[in-house]
Amino acid sequence: MRTLIALAMLGALAGCGLETVGTAATGAAIKKQELEQGKKTMEQAQQKIDQAMQLQQQQQQQLQRTESSSEK
């Protein structure tokens, strides 16, 4: 009888351990997904910043051309 109770308790404890491992794995997968999404968002933001800077440079060059044309 004691052996049966000990085996039952051991099984219950092992089950808790498996649940903890499963929860940790799920949490890690979620964090990985969040990290990947964050990287994509950062890359998109960087592309928008680069585009805005290029547009600003083009506008400045156009303004300089306009100013030098009006000075002549």
What does this structure look like?
The chain is mainly alpha-helical and 72 residues long. It contains 1 helix and no strands.
Q: What is the tally of beta strands? A: 0
What is the distance, rounded to the nearest whole angstrom, between the alpha carbons of the first and last residues?
A: 107 Å
Order of helices and strands: H
Q: Categorize the overall geometry.
A: rod-shaped
User: Which residues sit in consecutive blocks of at least 5 with pLDDT less than 50?
Assistant: none
Q: Radius of gyration from the CA trace?
A: 31 Å
Q: Could you give a short account of the major beta sheet?
A: none
Give the averaged pLDDT, no decimals.
84
Key phrases:
mainly alpha, 1 helix, rod-shaped
Question: Which helices and strands appear, and what pairs or packs with what?
Answer:
Layout (H helix, E strand, L loop, with lengths): L1 H70 L1
